[in-house]
Please model this.
Amino acid sequence: MKSYFVYILKCSDNSYYTGFTNNLERRLQEHHSGRNKDCYTFDKRPIELMWFETFNDVLDAIAIEKKIKGWTRIKKEALIAEDWDKLVLFSKNYTEFGKPQP
Model:
């Protein structure tokens, strides 16, 4: 069975990059080496792998990657820290619950 990975990198400028691949080791090496000068991480190296999850279904992995890309920084940090309470808090609608404090 084929595996797919969604991952979050922390870049040297303190930003986060969320990506998707079918070979995590190869993709991390590509990020580290600067293989693609048009890649977001090219001028933000070194990078550090902060989080990843493995999927068996490519469509599930793509959907999660797109969802995480739309998240706020504090929500991504809650995921990285595996702080499920904060992840739920930061997922709530600001107009209904007010802006959460990090």
